Amino acid sequence: MKIYFNGKLVDKENAKVSVFDHGFLYGDGAFEGIRSYNALVFRLKQHIDRLWETLHTLMIDPRMTKKDMMEAVVHTLRVNRIKDGYVRLIVSRGEGDLGLDPRKCHGKPNVIIIADKIVLYSPELYQNGMDIITVPTVKNHPNALNPQMKSLNYLNNILAKMEASLCGYNEAIMLQDNGYIGECTGDNVFVYKDGVLSTPHLGCLKGITCEVILQLAQKMKIKVFEGYITRHELYNAQECFLTGTAAELIPVVKVDGRVIGQGRPGPVTKKLLDNFHQLTKKDGVKYDL
């Protein structure tokens, strides 16, 4: 495996950052997860645009253009001969001292690209649906650490993931501080009922896959609602599913012990998943192996 590390491709064993890197010390940096399908990088521009928004808020200059970053992603996939894979793109603040002040980080930010495989859930869960719960850990308040930033500080999500795992579940819903549905530890949440597909929007990460599903739903003449959703509405939905770059689209059939709809993946969920897979076969930046 070759890792892109600050403009060079190095062996996995040699891809190392300093212990004084503020990404390591404080989670000071940004990342993106990107998918490739059949040598097509799906929605690459949208991922890079979102990365740039996070970097802008964090005031980190990657010392690269968006075009250079996109070419680096494609090059890393090509060199590793990965046709269907997952890319983790990381930009950390860089090396500084043991204090918090980012002005003490005098070196360049570290830009790292890892091209590999990822499997979040078993095929059985995609076929039969997943059982999830709501956990006590709530989403970060936007005025504390805005959930729309994909920063390296993911402890909020990790704590929620731990709570789910300790209870024997693969995934968990995190509420917003106002009690409304937020998102899962790594995925956006969708509910469908009476011809309307709903997903939380305010205070949640603007998921790339989430946006794709909303666009596909509109093409299917399904009404779309983005706004506050309560657990009561979730429990009484006809269908529910989660979306994310790594997860793609996975059905949910039970939440907090309440059966969703008929207790199996519904027809709208299945149709959206099929349309999503069809889109990944033709929408992306092509590269040759």
In short:
By secondary structure, this protein is an alpha+beta fold. The protein has helices at 22-26, 44-58, 66-79, 123-128, 155-166, 208-219, 231-235, 267-280; strands at residues 2-5, 8-11, 29-37, 40-41, 85-92, 110-116, 130-134, 172-175, 181-184, 188-193, 196-199, 223-226, 239-244, 248-255, 258-259, 285-286.
Layout of helices and strands:
Blueprint: E1 2-5, E2 8-11, H1 22-26, E3 29-37, E4 40-41, H2 44-58, H3 66-79, E5 85-92, E6 110-116, H4 123-128, E7 130-134, H5 155-166, E8 172-175, E9 181-184, E10 188-193, E11 196-199, H6 208-219, E12 223-226, H7 231-235, E13 239-244, E14 248-255, E15 258-259, H8 267-280, E16 285-286
Structure overview:
The protein has 289 residues and is an alpha+beta fold. It has 2 domains: 115 residues, D-amino Acid Aminotransferase, Chain A, domain 1; 158 residues, D-amino Acid Aminotransferase, subunit A, domain 2 (D-amino Acid Aminotransferase, Chain A, domain 2, Alpha-Beta Barrel), CATH 3.20.10.10. Helix content is 29%, strand content 27%. It contains 8 helices and 16 strands. Strands 7, 8, 9, 10, 11, 12, 13, 14 and 15 form a 9-stranded mixed β-sheet that branches. The protein has a 7-stranded antiparallel β-sheet with strand order 2-1-6-5-3-4-16. Strand 14 and strand 15 form a beta hairpin. The longest helix has 15 residues. The two termini are 15 Å apart.
State the major sheet: 9 strands, mixed
How many domains, as an integer? Answer: 2
Instruction: Kindly provide the name of the CATH class of the largest domain.
Output: Alpha Beta
CATH architecture of the largest domain: Alpha-Beta Barrel
Structure annotation, total helices: 8
How many angstroms does the end-to-end distance come to? 15 Å
Order of helices and strands: EEHEEHHEEHEHEEEEHEHEEEHE
> What is the radius of gyration computed over CA atoms, rounded to a whole number of angstroms?
19 Å
Mean pLDDT: 96
Which percent range fits the helix content?
A: 25-40%
> Would you count the extended β strands for me?
16
State the shape: globular
Query: What is the fourth-level CATH superfamily of the largest domain?
Result: D-amino Acid Aminotransferase, subunit A, domain 2
Give the helix/strand class.
alpha+beta
Share of residues in strands: 25-35%
CATH topology label of the largest domain: D-amino Acid Aminotransferase, Chain A, domain 2
- Taking pLDDT < 50 over at least 5 consecutive residues as the criterion, the unreliable ranges are none
